[in-house]
Amino acid sequence: MPGLRHAALVLAALCSTAAPAQPGFTFAQVNAEAAARAGTERSLSTHLLRAREAARRGLVHPRHVTRDSGGRFQVAIRTDFAGADLSEGLRAAGAAVTFQEMGSGYVEAWVSPERLHAVASVPGVNFLRPILPAVPRTGAVLSEGDAFHQANAARFYLDIAGGGVKVGLITTGVRGLAGAQAFGDLPLVLDNQIPTGVPANTDGDGTALLEIMRDVAPDIRMAYAVAITPGNYMQCLTNLRNAGCDIIVDHLGFYAEPFFEDGMLAQALDQAAADGFHVVSAAGNDGQNHWEGPYVDVDPLTGVGVSDDFHAFAPNDPYLAITIRPQTVCTVVLQWSDPFGASATDYNLYLYDGPVQNLLDSSLDIQDGNDDPFEFVQFYNTTNADQLGQIAIDKVNPLQPDRRLEFFVIGSPLSGEVSIGSVTIDEPAVPAGSIIGQAAARSAITVAALDVTAPPMNVIEPFSSRGPSVIEHASAETRLKPNVSAADRVSITTGSGEPIPFLGTSAAAAHTVGIMALLLELNPALDPQEMKDTLEASCYDILLPGYDTTSGAGRLDALLAILSVPLSGAEDWTMYR
Length: 577
Hints:
Blueprint: H1 2-15, H2 27-35, H3 46-57, E1 73-79, H4 87-92, E2 96-101, E3 106-111, H5 116-120, E4 125-130, E5 135-136, H6 151-158, E6 166-171, H7 177-182, E7 191-192, H8 205-216, E8 221-226, H9 230-242, E9 247-250, E10 252-253, H10 264-274, E11 278-282, E12 290-294, E13 309-310, E14 320-324, E15 328-336, E16 347-353, E17 359-363, E18 374-381, E19 387-395, E20 404-413, E21 423-425, E22 445-451, E23 469-471, E24 477-479, E25 484-488, E26 490-492, E27 500-502, H11 505-522, H12 528-537, H13 558-564
Parallel strand pairs: 6-8, 6-9, 7-8, 9-11, 11-22, 22-25
Antiparallel strand pairs: 1-3, 1-4, 2-3, 5-10, 12-20, 13-19, 14-19, 14-21, 15-18, 15-20, 16-17, 16-19, 23-24, 26-27
Helix pairs in contact: 1-2, 1-3, 8-11, 9-10
């Protein structure tokens, strides 16, 4: 096939573990590769095509694609058939389907490299791409949050501890759980609702959140489930609902979920709230690694391609500079304001080195009317020195309508643990609008991170994602996010028996859930909207008067919230005076 000849030219650079790409990996070559695609190749993402060619040639495969022990690729499949069961046809073509969402036509599956074309040829299949795994909203630093929110005072004066309330956590791992139980930081009995086949011990973030929730509400019952993919998340949510959880909280970022509309996960959270479940989500740690703005044509006269319609980040400047720390993987995820499954405006994404001499990675998926407005690039800095990078975005057809662009620059050390600051945008980032996915769901209580160590207790973490959340499809809406703020930089053990520093909006969400459990013990009849209203109305305003898109309604105060909650039955607050 003609496209494969061009793909072979770039494989050496893509499959190398060295920091800089090889000089032969050029803008012209990757664009020739994309232009040569025909037939079902147009329905396969850039990264799947290159990984398939690497497998054919026996090369080290590009690490953008998750493989199992048998060499199969883990893929997301976008189909036309919402509400239809495509699994039989996909299985006949060689796909091992692990998840299908009937409402949207989204499918997850394992597919061997040689069966990609067969799967792409199934009637109704629009596109295949690698799955981007969940990113926990955590980092690492130190202090305490129980007294910060007056939860200790609420427990003491009212003799409440979350009794009768069950909390469900969707996380990326519970490593250290047995140790935390042995040291008495967590109860010996926890409800495991992990979907079949999902590993439990990828990290210890879930263990940390369980500890924080129990510190605030010691008598709660807890369940947990682990999600790596969006399909896992949907299974976890169903499992926790069926397990009888009253509150369901997650602290995960899925950057392949739509930025400009409610995707599968946001819709599922709204449905859970409509069914009476209280849903909480960490706002995200993306305030310093987010960019958003309208496309502006620059037509650069640099060495990367004359008369190509690159986006101008500044006048006559088609590049945005970033720094990738040593031993770090950097992922850049781009979306634009077309509807998912119906994008006809085609943008390509490129990552160059600092001097714009070598192309580190590129994504040239084809959007021709039934695709997602989505591209991503990834680079592994395996050296012990900073790697400078330059992001560039090219509009393929200048006659197509201009769209609003939005991207995140996500970094994590090669050890696998997420670390805030492992990749930085070296030019002004755009914090506003960095709350996306299920955290932007209308019904979710979305929580920003408040530095518990910084007096006078009103400093929102600079990395905490900011609102508002702007929705453009199916109808335009600007949502006031986040809803509230809570403490991070707190001590946990994650099974070690020693205090370990912990920060991020994950910690903030866990404190919020503990306070909510205290409220539900007092009044189990509180519905999700009453809970949200009570929390927001009792917050301590810490920034501008009234609501703001940095802290939401302000700092949570457990004692004020509990004194504001309507009691169930004939009780009133006179009995506690």
